[in-house]
Amino acid sequence: VAVAALATAGAATVVARTTTAEAAADVPAAAVPLAAGVEDEGADCAVTLPGSLTANSRLPDPFTRLNGTRISSRSDWRCRRAEIRELAERYVYGDKPAKPASVTGTVSSSGITVNVSHNGRSSSFSASVSLPSGTGPFPAVVVLGGFGADTAAIRAAGAAVINYDPYAVGREGTPRNNKQGAFYSIYGSSSSTGLLMAWAWGVSRIIDVIEQAGGNILRPDATGVTGCSRFGKGAFVIGAFDQRIALTMPIESGSAGVPIFRGIPGEGAQSLSSAYGEQPWLGDAFGSFTSNPNSLPVDTHEVVAMFAPRGLFIMDNPHITNLGPRSASVAALGGAEVYQALGVGGNITYWSDIQDGNHCANRAEWRTPLQQNIQKFLLKTGNAAGAMRISSRASGNLADWRTWQTPTLSDGPTTPPTTPPTNPPTTPPTTP
Ligand code: MCU
Predict the structure, then answer these.
(1) Can 410 be counted among the known catalytic residues?
(2) Which end of the chain is more exposed for a tag (fewer CB within 10 A), N or C?
(3) Residue 136 CB burial class (10 angstroms; 0-12, 13-18, ≥19)
């Protein structure tokens, strides 16, 4: 789909990928399950990780399987996604364990408690809840940290806010060999899983509890997540790794968040070694790649793709190079190719066309798209098409980063290989 320049507003060139024709071609929101009923719907896919890695200065092809073949139908995406998930766990974020043996807890109009036990170890954490006005049950947005996210706009749109303290589940300020928090109490302080994935595990356990509570206060099928800066990194990983999350809204996530790892050094964003070393956000395995991201078999455009067809609204700041906004736009454009191939190009938005350059400022420009995304993916009362509103201050060019092209995927399952010809070849093979 061609990228069409629609308008120029001050210093920011606004480009929108979604034309009327494309929006019409998208499957209507009501016809598509916008979130899966399970945390990982590809859990049954057999994935064999590569034995060795090949350096590639361009972005890996999201449509090519680990065995070198390309997917050809939309239904092939489920198990290709599972491959990307495994790669991202092994090389970037660390393992996210499946649901523990026991998860219990409570949901009230003011809070959620979570109790987990597994293999003889247990831990607990809680989160406060602020309901919107009106009559429930309500959708809910998990908000990480107390800044950046427009909680007033979220509640005004009709969603509850779940105030999640990620540090209760994965603390900052610890060395990698002594990680702390509810996740590490269960899986060990020397777990190689980084904080972002520990935070993701915690939100998945909150959703487990919401599911078990019966849905009188909070709807189990309408959860979103958001946060700014380090909590934007968190929101991105939380949403990617739980397919029950219908809407994810990372804000100004920076290095270790949305920006492609391969683009960060050239753009002059926070270096990979700085982000890796500042806090154990990424998994321990990422330490081998901080000076050679070209050897990573996966990049964040494929993490973006893991969200498809679910709602993804990426907010970014083109005024701060340290955040890697150019590299973030490339991640969004690359991942959007998968959304488009699946016929849901209107379900992703990237928005860096903003005037106020302060990090994690509350911005009027994002209020309308934020509420439209909540209406479309959580309340299911709207169907506004997403858009790429990339500021010309920091716009990357996907063509510079890829050699692959986006396939036209067929609707149904892949046709099995045709049966071999029944007639023997007319010319017998010549003997040497
Ligand atoms: C953009 O997110 C981080 C950044 O990666 C860190 O280097 C800096 O210390 O903190 C930022 C942040 O979380 O700001 C609130």
Answers:
(1) no
(2) C
(3) middle
Which residue, judged by its Cα, is nearest atom 7 of ligand 1?
275
Give the Å distance between the CA of 87 and the centre of ligand 1. 25
357 Cα–ligand 1 center, Å? 15
* Alpha carbon distance 227, 243 (integer Å): 18
Tell me what pLDDT residue 364 has: 96
Q: Which of 123, 191, 229, 255 is catalytic?
A: 229
Residue 229 near ligand 1, beta carbon < 6 Å: yes
**Unique residue bearing structure tokens 């997917």:** 71
Q: Which residue puts its alpha carbon closest to atom 15 of ligand 1?
A: 229
DSSP 47: -
Query: How confident is the model at residue 17, as a pLDDT?
Result: 37
CA 322 to ligand 1: nearest atom: 1
The pair of structure tokens assigned to 376 is 């479309």
Binned at pLDDT 50, 70 and 90, residue 413 comes out as low
Q: Is the CB of 166 under 6 A from ligand 1?
A: no
Is 122 assigned a catalytic role?
Answer: no
Helices vs strands, H then E, count in the chain: 11, 12
> 162, 181, 160, 151: which is closest to 112 by C-alpha?
162
Are residues 186 and 118 in contact, defined by beta-carbon separation less than 8 angstroms?
yes
Of the ranges 20-34, 273-287, 388-402, 405-419, which one carries the lowest mean pLDDT score? 20-34
